[in-house]
Write a structure and sequence with these properties.
mainly alpha; globular; Four Helix Bundle (Hemerythrin (Met), subunit A); 55% helix; 2 strands
Amino acid sequence: MSAEHARTHAAAVANLSTIVDGVTDWDAPTPVAEWRARDVVGHLVEWLPGFLGGSGVELPGGPGAATDPVAAWRHHSVAVQDLLDDPASDALVLANPHVGELPVPVAIDRFYTTDVFLHAWDLARSSGQPHGLDPQWCAAVLAGMEPAEAMLRASGQFGERVAVPDDAPAPERLMAFLGRDPAWRP
């Protein structure tokens, strides 16, 4: 099980790492109005350790995104990859009041890896780089999220859906669903 999730995570990390390496202004605005470029990395490296609480998994601490977003991302992404590459991670269970009980690799894949994948678009837009999002993966994520649209909107984590043509490319349709304007530029 963890091997499949490890491969998916590695692909999302490779794309985002390329974008991270190309950022020249870590204080640039992003499509998330309250965030600067460094805040995208900060979000990704900060929420997962708390989410994994109660599963017996402690990710090693590293540099902070506020002072060194590149080092923070590299350290964190390697730590998560090492966890997923370890076959023993299949036996770890996350017990969370919001999602129930899930094997840790499944929880990381479902919630965290998808977040890495999605936020690559934000950081790419912020830094003027190509987003590198796989259109088939975008279409699959969108298909998985659309049935839960009411719940997702009620969570407050997503903006109102942005109108785009039905035949827009899958990355644009996904970002529009999430409340991002596909035409956004800093």
